[in-house]
Amino acid sequence: MRLSAIGDVCHAVAMVTRIQSQWRDAEITWVIGKVEYQLVKLMPNVRFIIFDKSQGKAAVESLKAAVAGETFDALLMMQVALRANMASRVIKAKQRIGFDWSRSKELHWLFANKRVAATKHAHVLEGFMDFADALGVPKSDTLTWNIPVTPEDARWAEEQAKALGKYVVISPAASKAERNWLPQRYASIADYIQESGVNVILCGGPGELDRKTADAIKAEVKHPVKDFTGKTSLHQLLMLLKHAHLVIAPDTGPAHMATTVGTPVIGLYAHSNPRRTGPYHNLERVVSVYDECIEVQKGKPWKALPWGTRAKGSELMEKISVEMVKQKVEPFIA
């Protein structure tokens, strides 16, 4: 059971792929959010149950009806939010596996009868892998993601990539405005990249914040950029990210989507610890001011604080300079 968000669902896919590769006969049911389902809906041999949280109690009743008469060998409770915990009560399972004590927020521990092993300073993806460990699934030599798309979406992205040539994706909008870098600084990086002979495209979802952020960047750039914001499905976006030379993004879903298809990512972080939530396989490319921000606010270094402690403030991302990002970008466009 992992309902949201896009980035966390990407992490969960790696765990599901591990189970499928090691236990080929395993029957997997995934309770997932409505939007997130659109990304993973073509995964083979997975039965999906959509949980639309906007429906409130009706969503719980729908879930209850979907699993009526079933008893699962194990329920992996991979979301600590109280809404998910409460909904999980309608699912009958011999084992109800939840997070360890330190990660059991919002009364999560009350709904589980077994917990994963405690880990210190683990990335969210590694925390999800703890559930496969708790089941006894053998470890894999390689970390893989299996997120199929339709041939039509794959061809569409190939056509776009052919027309664009070598390109960098900027996916500038996170779910909260305070986690976004400044539009004029994104514009400066876009101009720097395009002046080196590499194209830049903007990507994002259909939400208002994504649209406003993209428009603000386009108003600042010297060289026009192609804008796909709100114009793609999740599968089309995934394939655009796959063909990209590089992705630049704050703490947002497309950064993790890009990781699943092997595209390098430069993540921009101030509020959350990228060691925990950064784009996996790309942590050495992160531009982060989190360490200094959290120490100023808490009076302690991050290692002395509870794992996952967030820095707060609407101006923290301003501490990331254009030059800091240029230094990470330069090797890709030299």
TrEMBL record:
GO cellular component: cytosol
Metal-binding recorded as keyword: no
Biological-process GO terms, alphabetical: lipopolysaccharide core region biosynthetic process
GO MF term (any one): ADP-heptose-lipopolysaccharide heptosyltransferase activity
Keywords in alphabetical order: Glycosyltransferase, Transferase
Family classification: Belongs to the glycosyltransferase 9 family.
Protein name (Swiss-Prot/TrEMBL): Glycosyl transferase
Organism: Alteromonas mediterranea (strain DSM 17117 / CIP 110805 / LMG 28347 / Deep ecotype)
Lineage: Bacteria, Pseudomonadati, Pseudomonadota, Gammaproteobacteria, Alteromonadales
